[in-house]
Design a protein that fits this description.
Structural class: alpha+beta
CATH topology of the largest domain: Jelly Rolls
CATH architecture of the largest domain: Sandwich
Number of helices: 2
Largest sheet: 6 strands, antiparallel
Radius of gyration: 30 Å
Length: 189
């Protein structure tokens, strides 16, 4: 401790304090003076942006998920039946918004040998927005995953929308089923 006191002078204390203030005050000054022209192109990456910091109004072409629905296992019965969806199935479509839908269906179907056309089984998930078909994904014999897409154009108004789904099949055995469905709706504009 005696060594430290012998080195501790007014000049050393003042210079250390000045160095501390210059370094910390300089950072605060720089943070208030850096503008968008001072940042190189592509220098800011996703990890530097806080979650939910970028809003639709901040984008040149606003993009957001308008629907994110899913459904579980269900049997395909020959004909058409409602298919319940969980998740986000309601939204308001903007006046200049185009909504795109991506449907993923996993399931297993096989033909019914007693059907009028044995060996042919067609089963699909039909996706509708306000009773208008916007997408579908069909399964054929075997176990598979299929993807379908579709688009819903804007009407020029702000419209409340609702996503629904139905199962439709023909010539399929009673063991035919859908295992899971995932529907994502992406709004642009």
């Amino acid at each position: 401790m005696g060594f430290l006191r012998s080195r501790l002078s007014y000049a050393n204390v003042v210079s250390t304090l000045a160095l501390f203030l210059a370094l910390s005050g300089g950072a605060v000054y720089a943070a208030g003076k850096i503008g968008s022209d001072d940042i190189a192109a592509n220098a800011i990456k996703s990890k530097q942006i806080a979650p939910a910091a970028v809003q639709r109004s901040d984008m040149a072409t606003p993009v957001s998920f308008v629907a994110n629905a899913h459904g579980g296992g269900a049997a395909f019965t020959n004909g058409t039946s409602d298919y319940p969806l969980a998740g986000k199935t309601k939204w308001t479509q903007g006046s200049k918004e185009i909504d795109q839908f991506f449907v993923e269906v996993k399931g297993s179907v096989s033909p019914d040998p007693s059907a009028p056309f044995p060996g042919i089984c067609f089963a699909s998930v039909i996706v509708k927005v306000d009773a208008v078909q916007v997408a579908s994904a069909g399964l054929f014999s075997g176990t598979q995953t299929v993807v379908g897409t579709g688009v819903l154009m804007d009407t020029g108004n702000k419209d409340k929308r609702q996503l629904t789904a139905t199962l439709q099949s023909s010539g399929c055995s009673p063991a035919s089923r859908v295992d899971s469905v995932r529907i994502r709706g992406l709004g642009t504009g």
